[in-house]
Write a structure and sequence with these properties.
By secondary structure, the protein is of the alpha/beta class. The chain is built from 19 helices and 10 strands. Helices cover 64% and strands 10% of the residues. α6 packs antiparallel against α9 (223-275) and α18 crosses α19 (571-584).
């Protein structure tokens, strides 16, 4: 019982917070509510007109043209007011959904890197898509159904009470029973909707993994295993969805049973009233028609409970993200252009949920105009180390300095403006070649500078052959380009940025020899006069680095030049010998 009370409090807090998103559109909503009130009035008047039509035309045989004309006018008015209410409420609801998506997307882009390690992207897409849509339904669409049907029920009850208050009182006795039933069902809706949304996110994540890795799935004959895993999740999703349908259907059936009982009792009461001369044939027709109209309206009101609870559950998922802590950005020291002196002092780093640090006491200095190569076995912490420099992750101990000041002292935007990244997995976007090179803050760059960057990156030789040159669309993720071409566009982007710090994360590891030569040649033009950190897969590419850092299990075990480390005969010499033997083979 205590948990239910807390849940109800949380729900009311969530709904009050949710209503804040509808506040900018209260003007539209007010127009919609007024239109719904007029629609309900027209519906009540239409219902009232049935009495005179039956009494005058079918009982007294006294035909009058104003009766059918009035009926047509009332029906037209009801349709017009319904259109206005549908449009205004729908417009407000879509705007609420848009605002939520924009705010949520902005929040995701502000979250620290650790969040993306704990929440998969498919789950984020579920929140941006289905959850945002259901929240909009809770905030506005459910409001329309609730107000429209409530006003319609009130208008119908007014006509019924005006026609025969004695008969109409029968229905009012059923209202408390229905309210109790809807309250009980609401708690079950809330629990089931939360479970089905979590299930949908997991189902999408499993499908996303399998489809992205479809070549590995096929190569290792893992289709049955992936289908079995997906099948378990879809089965759970179906079971939860069916529970919701059974709950909704049970409530709907309960409403219809109550309606049938009410109608039966009303027939008995109406018969007694007619026998006493207090109810005409037209009045009885009005009461019966009103009763028939009430049942669908009451059923729709019960569906609001489902819509509202789905929206509340989705809102709780959205607000859990919006309330999460953003990247820490407290720096106040402006930074126009860094010299590029990077110092690591006893830096330790750990990933969320892992007890053992991924980096242990790392200390080194990378000076402007030098190349620092970082090597080591897979999983030794190379990528984790360089991700600390743009503060994608925060060190758990020690300090990192740029030009003699802690990274925290600089605003994040200023710090990241000093860094250009070229990784093994190049991220390109659906757009033109020029748009991908002049990306983000570079989008206003001079077209001549864009072309120069493309040329220096050895990319002009394939861009010039494209149908529209720099304006050619390259598809989502640069899907129309080869790996080497995508890599050269990433280098062109880094060249255009002209940042004093350059980070190369195995930029040539996945390329064939011809593409690697072109990329290496482009990098040779990019590296001079910068502080460059290179994560190297092929040790032959870093022989001329000013210093080599050798990581092993998150520790800096060796440091020196290529020649010095070979002479030392330690871990680096062992790695070099292994690659030399592989190359010879």
């Amino acid at each position: 019982r205590g948990r239910d009370a807390v849940s109800e409090i949380d729900t009311s807090v969530t709904y009050r917070r949710l209503r804040q998103y509808a506040r900018p559109y209260w003007g539209l909503i007010a127009i919609g509510i007024l239109a719904m009130a007029l629609e309900a009035t027209a519906s009540g008047a239409t219902l009232w007109l049935l009495g005179p039509i039956v009494d005058n035309i079918f009982v007294e045989h006294n035909f009058s043209y104003w009766l059918p004309a009035g009926l047509v006018l009332l029906l037209m008015a009801r349709g017009l007011f319904g259109l206005v209410s549908d449009y205004t409420i729908a417009r407000a609801g879509r705007n609420v959904a848009r605002d939520l998506r924009m705010q949520l997307m902005a929040k995701y882009l502000e979250l620290p890197g650790a969040r993306f390690d704990t929440e998969p992207v498919p789950s984020m897409l579920t929140r941006l898509g289905a959850d945002s849509e259901q929240v909009a339904q809770a905030a506005v669409d459910s409001l329309k159904v609730m107000i429209s049907n409530t006003l319609g029920i009130i208008a119908t009850l007014v006509v019924m009470l005006w026609t025969s208050w004695r008969v109409s009182l029968v229905l009012l006795l059923l209202a408390p029973v229905m309210a109790w039933m809807m309250g009980k069902v609401g708690k079950r809706y809330r629990r089931l909707n939360h479970a089905i949304q979590e299930s949908s996110a997991q189902m999408l994540q499993t499908a996303d993994q399998a489809l992205h890795a479809q070549q590995d799935v096929k190569a290792y004959g893992a289709q049955p295993a992936e289908m079995a895993r997906y099948g378990v999740q879809t089965k759970l999703n179906v079971a939860l969805a069916l529970k919701i349908e059974v709950t909704r259907g049970t409530l709907s059936m309960f409403v219809q049973v109550l309606g049938a009982i009410g109608m039966a009792v009303m027939l008995v009461a109406a018969g007694f009233e007619a026998a006493q001369g207090r109810l005409t044939a037209g009045g009885f027709t009005k009461l019966m028609t009103a009763m028939v109209n009430l049942v669908p309206s009451m059923r729709q009101l019960t569906n609001v409970q489902s819509m509202l609870q789905r929206g509340i559950s989705s809102a709780e998922r959205l607000f859990s993200v919006m309330d999460a802590g953003s990247e820490r950005d407290v720096g106040r020291r402006p930074l126009e252009r860094a010299q590029g002196l990077i110092e690591f002092r006893g830096v330790e780093a750990r990933y969320e949920g892992r007890d053992e640090p991924v980096l242990h006491g790392i200390s080194f200095v990378a000076r402007p105009g030098t190349v620092t190569a970082i090597v080591g076995r897979s999983g030794s912490g190379k990528s984790s180390l360089v991700k600390l420099i743009p503060r994608f992750y925060e060190p758990s101990d020690g300090s990192i300095l740029l030009d003699g000041h802690l990274l925290d002292d600089y605003p994040l935007a200023d710090l990241r403006r000093q860094i250009a990244l070229v990784g093994q997995q190049v991220m390109l976007f659906d757009g033109s070649v020029a748009g991908n090179v002049a990306y983000g803050e570079l989008q206003e760059a001079d077209p001549a500078k864009i072309e120069a960057a493309v040329r220096d990156a050895n990319a002009l030789e394939f861009v010039a052959r494209m149908p529209d040159g720099l304006d050619t669309q390259i598809g989502a993720g640069g899907g129309k380009l080869s790996g080497g071409q995508r890599q050269r566009l990433a280098i062109a982007r880094a060249m255009l940025k002209d940042a004093p710090i350059l980070i190369l994360d195995e930029a040539t590891a996945a390329l064939d020899n011809a593409s690697e030569r072109l990329v290496q040649d482009a990098l040779a033009k990019l590296i001079p006069d910068r502080t460059t950190l290179v994560i190297a897969h092929r040790l032959s590419t870093i022989e001329h680095a000013d210093q080599v850092l050798v990581l092993d299990d998150g520790r800096l075990v060796e440091q020196g030049t290529h020649v010095e480390l070979l002479a030392r005969g330690g871990v680096y010499a062992h790695l070099h010998a292994m690659q030399f033997r592989e190359g010879a083979a």
